[in-house]
Specification:
Layout lengths: L14 H11 L14 E3 L3 E3 L8 H17 L2 E5 L5 H15 L3 H4 L9 E3 L14 E6 L17 H26 L8 H4 L8 E7 L9 E6 L5 E6 L5 E5 L2 E5 L6 E5 L1 H6 L9 E4 L6 E8 L6 E2 L11 E2 H15 L14 H5 L1
Parallel strand pairs: 1-10, 2-3
Antiparallel strand pairs: 3-11, 4-5, 5-6, 6-13, 7-12, 8-11, 8-13, 9-10, 9-12, 14-15
Length: 353
């Protein structure tokens, strides 16, 4: 790898130390983090966004219906002709590689990208909960802020991140507007703004999954649903993304020209469960490192997550309330409960019994 070593250590976070600690803590050696059943590889539904611009109304409707079906049945789909150029994504990959191959003690510095660096899972109490990955989870509002540090080699990173965020936000706006309209929502053309999402409230997350010597017992990212409206993801060709379909894990085949889009918890709530926020994970790879970049469409903290139509199965809640509840549950129980907490008539105690 390009990974350069530093006098104070390596470029990789101390994931192996976490692994060994958790391995000792697990009663069963190896932790059984991953079941050994064969996982089928699937092509996700493919949506050509160019068809939404067709002069033919019928073609536009067929495309919108296909998107809505995929959001209902899979919670995930791929989009082509999305307007995010391959050159830009390749440039992002180069910047990302350079960033993640910085020494670990530099990545950890609170000044670098506004202290947005994360690695592993500090809350993990067993191997099942260890994520063999590192990331910069950057609020869009802070991308344009200059770092108060001397990383000249990363000076072009922010500009590329801003371009990627702008391009992916256009994809997210198109998709959410189309899906909202398909539910018969009149304000669909202004969906992102109506839902309290704008250029400052969303996040860009740069992910790296280092090659893992314990890949059989470890996950790159543990199973989870996204706590946002919509996620737009560019993954490389290494693969490793898996999602839950009909109670089985399905491996998502990488596609060079497609972006992956998935429904988040907030959109499931807003759509009255018509669209599904589906559990997904990343499996570890023993040979290759993997990179991805994700755009998370989030509203402001105090935005009320509404509904496309009453009656809604959910109590009214704000994005801030949702995120706080997720954090509390993870801290107390080790896992996210999420949307079931906010169902009408639900008492929180009944979920944790």
């Amino acid at each position: 790898t390009m990974a350069a070593f530093h006098e104070n250590g390596t470029t990789d976070p101390p994931l192996a130390d976490s692994y060994r600690t958790l391995l000792r803590r697990d009663e069963l050696r190896g932790g059984l983090a991953r079941e050994s059943l064969a996982v089928l590889e699937h092509d996700l539904p493919m949506i050509d966004l160019k068809r939404l611009m067709s002069r033919d109304v019928r073609e536009r409707n067929v495309c919108a219906d296909a998107m809505a079906s995929a959001a209902s049945e899979w919670g995930f789909f791929q989009v082509t002709n999305h307007g995010v150029s391959r050159e830009l994504l390749e440039e992002m990959r180069r910047e990302q590689t350079r960033l993640f191959h910085q020494p670990f003690d530099i990545k950890e510095k609170p000044r670098l990208l506004n202290g947005s660096y994360r690695w592993g899972n500090p809350m993990a109490t067993s191997l099942r909960q260890l994520s063999w990955s590192e990331a910069f989870h950057v609020p869009l509002a802070s991308i344009s802020e200059e770092d108060d540090c001397e990383h000249a080699e990363l000076s072009s990173l922010r500009g590329v991140m801003q371009e990627v965020a702008d391009a992916m936000s256009r994809v997210a706006d198109t998709v959410t507007g189309t899906l909202a309209k398909n539910l018969g929502h009149a304000g669909s053309t202004t969906f992102p703004a109506a839902a309290g999402c704008d250029g400052t409230t969303c996040f860009l997350r740069l992910n790296r999954y280092p090659a893992c010597p314990f890949a059989a017992d470890t996950l790159g990212m543990v199973p989870h649903t996204d706590s946002d409206f919509l996620t737009v993801l560019c993954q490389d060709q290494v693969g490793g993304l898996e999602l839950m379909k009909d109670s089985h894990w399905v491996a998502v085949k990488p596609h060079a020209d497609a972006l992956i889009v998935n429904v988040g918890d907030l959109f499931q709530a807003w759509s009255n469960n018509r669209y599904k926020s589906v559990e997904h994970r990343v499996v570890a790879n023993s040979k290759a490192e993997r990179f991805s970049v994700a755009y998370f469409m989030c509203p402001s903290w105090d935005s009320l997550v509404g509904t496309c139509a009453e009656p809604s199965p959910y109590k009214p809640f704000t994005f801030g309330e949702y995120r706080r509840k997720v954090q509390d549950d993870v801290t107390q129980t080790g896992k996210k409960i999420g949307l079931p907490n906010f169902l009408k008539g639900c008492t929180v105690d009944s979920l944790t019994e």
